[in-house]
Shikimate kinase (Nonlabens dokdonensis), 174 residues
Amino acid sequence: MSLKIVLLGYMGSGKSTVGELLSSQISFSFFDLDHEIEQLEKKSVTKIFDENGVIYFRKIENKVLDKIINSENDLVLSLGGGTPCYYDTMNYLNSKENIKTIYLDVPIPVLVQRLFAERSTRPLIEKIDTQEELTEFIGKHLFERREFYRQAKMIISVADQSPTEIAARIETLL
Ligand code: S3P
């Protein structure tokens, strides 16, 4: 049976960077869900949000997730920040024995620091002007989302470790 390692967490938590490193360490293929959606739709996530709307995005996201999860290969997959919060995704993923869901739990100040400079490329926070507003937004958003994230089979609390250290730590826990 194939093994699928699924990384989840808030925007800016390092899912893609850690996922890519982990996949090369253990010689699994790597998939980034946002990237797969962009390939299928032939446009950026921001453009999909702008032109097709969030409901359309969530539907496509779920469809692409399903396809990857039901493939035959061993793989590492990084979800989008919102993926676990729609379509009963956590129960679906956790019900499969060959899927390991891993939550990268990153403190809010670290997320704010990472996301503030790149907010213009992220549709959910592109209109935020100040770091204070971003802190407040993430605080509220995480309060809603943690309930889903915390259903992951494994939780990795990230403080100041590098992506390489986090990937190495995950490998020891697999
Ligand atoms: C989203 C996170 C993004 C992307 C989209 C929506 C979210 O993915 O899927 O902008 O709802 O948190 P990343 O977490 O990879 O940035």
